[in-house]
Write a structure and sequence with these properties.
Strand content: 15-25%
GO molecular function, one term: ATP binding
Strand order of the largest sheet: 3-2-4-5-1-6-7
Number of helices: 16
Catalytic activity: ATP + protein L-histidine = ADP + protein N-phospho-L-histidine
Pfam family, one: MEDS
CATH superfamily of the largest domain: P-loop containing nucleotide triphosphate hydrolases
Order of helices and strands: HHEHEHHEHHEHEHEEHHHEHEEHEEHHEE
Keywords: ATP-binding, Kinase, Nucleotide-binding, Transferase
Shape: elongated
CATH class of the largest domain: Alpha Beta
Protein name: histidine kinase
Number of strands: 14
Radius of gyration: 27 Å
Structural class: alpha/beta
Length: 458
């Protein structure tokens, strides 16, 4: 029965831990509209290296030149960390995409003068744009200041001046603060001068940020920096949870109201037309009515599935093959006339939501429904792309996912004029993203549907 399919698949998972992962951070960097000035706060060198590596990798992948000012890590360590994150360091360095310098040397070149340093950054931006880059991303380790006679206020003055200037520059900066070396007063001042914060692998909105003008005009502020960081992290986690809940509830509510109303109107019209079982075409009309009723039941069951899993997400590192086999089996049960081909090595480890087979099954079912042929077919290709990810491509002899559906799924909300037919694509999107994966729908050619999953937790 239709209802049994989703009743059996519902799991009661434990709530996601608040602590993030570098994979989650990469996903946030991919999706976020980043401000020009961020700060990372860390206690362990490994955390700093992974966060900085994710920042640099994202910068390079989005067409920017990246300048890395090293101090606590020497330049060879920075290059080694980037290689572990699958950055082609030698090629990037040779091409000028990546520049790794000593932070002390760079600041000394500017005579430790904030105005001079900003002039150098402006010049770097101008040159980079002329050479075809979208802009310049800068990652700086702030421990260099402990090797000088400068006070931290000198650095804060630069932070405020940078904030006042950077809206006019194609530049994004990540300042890195070691919480074991900077005292509460310094950390608090850093919080006031950075619009977004990366803390415990989470990209946080910073409620303590003030504009450069406000920073210079106010003399006293709270200095319990550790408490400020924890509160900010908790607020960000709660806000993200609420936003996901609201998005999913909004989509489910609209689909239930729109689709169930339409299907019931069809059923009502059919039944009203049947004066008796002898009416011409009665059997065909009843079959149509039953089809619409089954659609209603399936939508209701999917909505119930979403409701039960909406606030929980359990990730695991597991083998992809069982998920593929389960999804293929379900597709063959639904369409026994279909030809389904799996290519590539699916015996690989991936990080994903434990409900990934449901997501994959929804996408296979969608691909089969898009075809008008009596014997529909599809091909599922598994490959590495890039080495840190596993790519799953679904190709079929039919039209791509409609632009309307792509736009709705990308925007994350539905309207009366723009909406998906059912919950299937939404369900797949939410499950894939719960595991920090990507779901894409290329506009033309093969494949029509693409999923990317990470290979490991970092």
């Amino acid at each position: 029965m239709v209802s049994q399919r989703y009743a059996d698949r519902t799991r009661v998972d434990r709530e996601s831990p608040v602590v993030g992962t570098v994979d989650a951070l990469r996903g946030e960097l991919d999706r976020a509209d980043l401000p020009r000035h961020l700060a990372c706060f860390y206690r362990a060198p490994q955390t700093q290296q992974k966060v900085a590596g994710a920042f640099v990798k994202h910068a390079l992948e989005t067409g920017n030149r990246c300048l890395y000012f090293a101090d606590a890590n020497d330049r060879s360590t920075v290059r080694r960390v980037l290689r572990t994150m699958d950055v082609d360091v030698d090629r990037r360095l040779d091409a000028g995409d990546l520049v790794v310098r000593s932070a002390s040397d760079a600041y000394q070149e500017a005579d430790f003068d904030p105005d001079r340093l900003i002039e150098l950054l402006e010049s770097a931006c101008e040159v980079s744009v002329d050479e075809g880059y979208d802009g310049v991303w800068v990652a700086g380790e702030l421990t260099w200041c402990f090797h000088t006679d400068l006070s931290y206020d000198h650095i804060v003055d630069f932070e405020a001046d940078f904030d006042a200037t950077c809206p006019d520059l194609p530049i994004t900066a990540l300042c890195q603060y070691d919480l074991t070396q900077f005292n509460d007063e310094s950390v608090a001042k850093a919080l006031w001068t950075h619009e977004r914060i990366i803390y415990r692998y989470t990209l946080c909105e910073n409620p303590y940020y003030v504009t450069p003008e406000q920073f210079r005009s106010q003399q006293t502020r709270p200095l319990n920096a550790r408490l400020m960081l924890e509160q900010m992290h908790s607020l960000t986690h709660a806000r993200n949870q609420i936003e996901r809940h609201e998005q999913r509830l909004s989509v489910v509510n609209r689909i239930l109201r729109h689709n169930i109303r339409n299907d019931l109107n069809v059923v009502s019209g059919i039944l009203s037309s049947l004066d008796s079982s002898e009416s011409p075409g009665a059997a065909r009309w009843l079959d149509t009515a039953i089809d619409h009723i089954e659609d209603i039941v399936e939508i209701a069951d999917k909505a119930r599935y979403v409701e039960r899993t909406i606030s929980t997400s359990q990730m695991e590192r597991t083998t992809l093959a069982p998920f593929v086999a389960d999804a293929i089996e379900r597709a063959e049960e639904t369409r026994p006339d279909a030809t389904l081909t799996v290519r590539g090595d699916d015996d690989v480890s991936v990080v994903t939501d434990t409900n990934f087979d449901t997501a994959l099954g929804e996408l296979l079912e969608y691909a089969l429904e898009r075809q008008e042929a009596d014997t529909p077919s599809l091909t599922l290709d598994v490959s590495d792309h890039p080495p840190e990810r596993v790519r799953i491509d679904i190709s079929y002899p039919g039209p791509p996912v409609p632009k309307n559906d792509r736009d709705v799924l990308t925007s994350g909300s539905e309207t009366q004029l723009q909406h998906c037919r059912g919950l299937g694509l939404w369900l797949a999107k939410w499950i894939v993203e719960n595991g920090h994966g990507r779901l894409e729908f290329p506009e033309s050619g093969d494949p029509q549907i693409r999923i990317e999953l990470y290979r490991r937790f970092d």
